[in-house]
Amino acid sequence: VAVVDTGIDYEHLDFGSAGAGNFGEGSKVVGGRDLVGDDYNPGAGGSADIPFPDDDPRDCSTELGGGHGTHVAGTIAGFGVEYDSVSDTYSTYDGQYNSSLTSLDLASMSIAPGMAPLASLLAIRVFGCNGATDMAADGIEEAVALGADIVNLSRSEEHTSELQSHSFISYAVF
Questions:
Q1: Which of 106, 107, 142, 158 is nearest to 7 (CA)?
Q2: How many alpha carbons lie under 13 Å from residue 156 in its C-beta half-sphere?
């Protein structure tokens, strides 16, 4: 599932054990691309209007205006995060996703598993840390090029004109 958004904080416990190694082949977030860079904000003027792409689609911190892509990715395919009150620690849930996972288990979690916790994710970053984007169509095209079977794009109604002016939907569907 490609998440075309603000990126994904792939070091978050919802996507695997904390630390490096949670991005790339064999990880929850199997790949992705940052199409814009941290400072991208079209219409703001100056260098903020210019995208600076790179290969690290990590979401900005919530303090810097990020987090939406991470939240969406967790809702879709997060593993879940458990809290151990004895040791006061959090850890990635590593149990089964079947009838053995009870409502009591879910209620005791800090973060419940996503709707498809065994799915892999692609992070396609089309937003900088703050502001708007005009790169959504490019993000969908990148997701398709990377092999996404499903593409998620969460946009508010005020940002639909860019989407309506592109034929990317046909590109993604066919």
A1: 142
A2: 5
H-assigned helices in the chain: 68-77, 103-108, 136-145, 160-164, 168-173
CA 67, distance to chain mean position in Å, is 9
Strand partners, 33: 124
Task: Report DSSP state, residue 117.
Answer: T
Q: What is the pLDDT of residues 120-142, one digit of tens each?
A: 999 999 999 988 899 999 999 99
pTM, full prediction = 0.89
* Tokens 């100056």 belong to residue: 46
Cβ burial, residue 163 (10 Å; 0-12/13-18/19+): middle
Compute the distance between CA of residue 11 and CA of residue 128 in angstroms, rounded to an integer. Answer: 19
